[in-house]
Amino acid sequence: MSSNGAVSGSVRNWLRTEGIAVVALAVVLYAKSGRSWWIFAALLLAPDLFMLFYLINAKVGALAYNVVHSYVFPLIAAALMLIFDRAGLLPYVLIWVAHIGMDRSLGYGLKYKTAFARTHLGELNSGPGRLVNHSEG
Predict the structure, then answer these.
(1) Residue 136 Ramachandran class (φ > 0 left, ψ -120 to 50 alpha, else beta)
(2) DSSP assignment of 14-29, as one string?
(3) Nearest CA to 69 among 121, 108, 40?
(4) First CA to last CA across the chain, in angstroms?
(5) How far is residue 113's CA from residue 123's CA, in Å, rounded to a whole number?
(6) Cα–Cα dist 32/109, whole Å
(7) Which of 99, 104, 97, 102 is nearest to 131 (CA)?
(8) Nearest-CA neighbor of 113 among 52, 65, 49, 45?
(9) pLDDT of the chain along its 137 residues, tens only?
(10) How far apart are CA 12 and CA 15, in angstroms?
């Protein structure tokens, strides 16, 4: 782990590989659902709308972003859908999970409240996949 709280090296590579595996599984399961690929495409980037909370401030933005970009809530939603016999909504959870996996595979991690570019996978530097690990000075 770097001094700024971000993982580095092989651990970061494993987390990004895990993101690829998650998005691949979510896409395969979505395909098995028989739902429209237009819906998938239309909703895939919807979780990124939560970046708008950064217009309030970085602390609120990071909280909103992290809530929607954590696997915790889609898994809770999926469990509730199964418990309450609403499995027909599961394809939407798969889109949500695919988005998170896609972000992780590209290096977009959970955000720290200090700045949008500061994530648990490293500091974003002008584009996806371009990560740097600087200590905050």
Answers:
(1) beta
(2) HHHHHHHHHHHHHHHH
(3) 108
(4) 16
(5) 13
(6) 28
(7) 104
(8) 65
(9) 455 676 677 888 888 899 999 999 999 999 999 999 999 999 999 999 999 999 999 999 999 999 999 999 999 999 999 999 999 999 999 999 999 999 999 888 888 888 777 777 767 764 444 444 444 33
(10) 5
